[in-house]
Design brief:
five-stranded parallel sheet; single chain; 16 helices; alpha/beta; four-stranded parallel sheet; 425 residues; 14 strands
Length: 425
């Protein structure tokens, strides 16, 4: 890999051992990827505060300095971690103190995480604690090189914002935060950002549910390639686009998609492909029905113990919609409802009165994490319902429970009646 003089100096220890370890990691990483150089970044979204048994062990041995060195720099040396060189935020993590008495999450993990937040916050990590940092202030500009983790955040960053990032890991983002560098390959290069598959929608995609199913179809179809979607659909908003991208990143490995006339790098379908437009693969009524049935093929019992909303983390409009659907209702005695949201938006919901309505109905608005991230659900959960194609895809495998997928209205009905009565309309 070709290094600048500045990068060579960092590698050789001019800015201390932690930065040298970070640069060594990035050079090894870039060589493995075949990258020719590093690119500059001033926007890192990674993970360092979320608790785990291994992290607790490392902290007990050498404090948070050692934990970061081992887990975020792949370095076993005893080194002191300096302030982050570039703006860095923490993505979703474990559940926070507000989960006490609601979520079966270890108290010692909550305490460990609070300690981590103080350590990393003093070093310049913004504890956003959400998989949707773009909803709470981290909005890179078009063309900006980023180093982000989390599949649903990455696909939104690339596709909707037009910034550039690959789906990074804990070590590469840790190294990027101390150096402001990341290997320049993949989605950082303009030639790798054009569409590969053309999907034409022939069955009206009208709402949040439809955008999730279309995303799931696209991901299954293209895997880790780049779909370009045209055809019959209502103009999507932020919520629709994050739902589409999260589903596509779950069923496949999509990191970038184009909606001509909507996403910034595709003013036209021709521009999305930078050349001839390939024959279209159709998403019609038959495909829509098949995807709905696939997302519901892990549900057997119609008795619902748990309803989960907000994956990726709910927007304030989604929280308001849930509050309106729950207003004047009361949850079934055997069913719990959790709505996951960024803590910053939970504060907005609290002040706007939405949280009070949700809690009066028996539901909970929780921040910082989700059942898939923290691997927890209400005790004795056997069947859950969700409006998230991503959670319907992952949670049965993670927790060994059955899943139902449907609209917000279907999920609220399940929470109130204790039974799944949803269906495709």
């Amino acid at each position: 890999m070709i290094l600048t003089d500045e990068e060579k100096a960092m590698r050789d220890g001019a800015e201390g051992p932690a930065v040298a370890a970070a640069m060594d990691l990035l050079i090894r990483y870039g060589d493995a990827l075949g990258a020719q150089r590093l690119c500059d970044t001033r926007n890192v979204a990674g993970t360092s505060t979320q608790p785990s048994p291994l992290k607790a062990k490392l902290v007990a041995e050498g404090g948070w300095h050692k934990a970061f060195a081992v887990l975020n720099l792949d370095c076993d040396d005893a080194i002191e971690i300096p302030d982050m060189r570039v703006p860095t935020c923490q993505l979703q993590q474990g559940f926070g103190p507000d989960s006490a008495g609601v979520v079966p999450y270890p108290k010692e993990f909550v305490e460990l995480q609070s300690d981590a937040e103080a350590f990393y916050g003093r070093r310049g990590v913004n504890i956003l604690a959400t998989c949707t940092p773009y909803q709470v202030g981290n909005l890179p500009v078009r063309g900006e090189h980023c180093a982000w983790m989390e599949s649903s955040a990455v696909v939104y960053c690339n596709s909707v914002l037009g910034a550039r990032t690959n789906c990074e890991g804990g070590t590469s983002t840790g190294a990027a935060s101390l150096t402001g560098k990341i290997p320049c390959w993949g989605n950082h290069l303009a030639e790798n950002r054009f569409g590969t598959h053309h999907i034409r929608v022939e069955s009206g995609v009208r709402d949040f549910l439809d955008w999730g199913m279309l995303g799931y179809f696209a991901g299954e179809l293209v895997q880790d390639q780049r779909p370009v979607v045209t055809g019959e659909f209502t103009r999507p908003d932020l919520v629709d686009l994050k739902h589409f991208g999260a589903a596509a990143a779950s069923s496949g490995g999509v990191e970038l998609y184009h909606l001509p006339g909507i996403t910034p790098e595709a003013p036209t379908v021709e521009a999305a492909f930078d050349g001839p437009v390939p024959d279209a693969l159709v998403y019609g009524p038959r495909e829509r029905r098949a995807i709905y049935e696939k997302l519901n093929d892990q549900g057997r019992s119609t008795d619902v113990d748990f309803v989960l909303l907000g994956c990726p983390h709910a927007s304030i409009d989604q929280i308001r919609a849930a509050a309106r659907a729950l207003d004047g209702k009361r949850l079934h005695s055997g069913t719990q409802l959790w709505i996951m949201a960024p803590r910053a938006l939970k504060a907005v919901a609290d002040r706007s009165g939405y949280t009070a309505v949700i809690e009066k109905a028996g539901g909970k608005l929780l921040a910082d994490s989700c059942p898939a991230m923290s691997r927890v659900a209400p005790p004795f959960t056997k069947v859950f319902a969700t409006d998230s194609a991503k959670q319907a895809h992952y949670l049965p495998a993670i927790l060994g429970i059955e899943a139902w997928f449907g609209s917000l209205e279907d999920c609220v009905d399940a929470a109130v009646t204790g039974r799944w009565r949803g269906g495709l309309r």
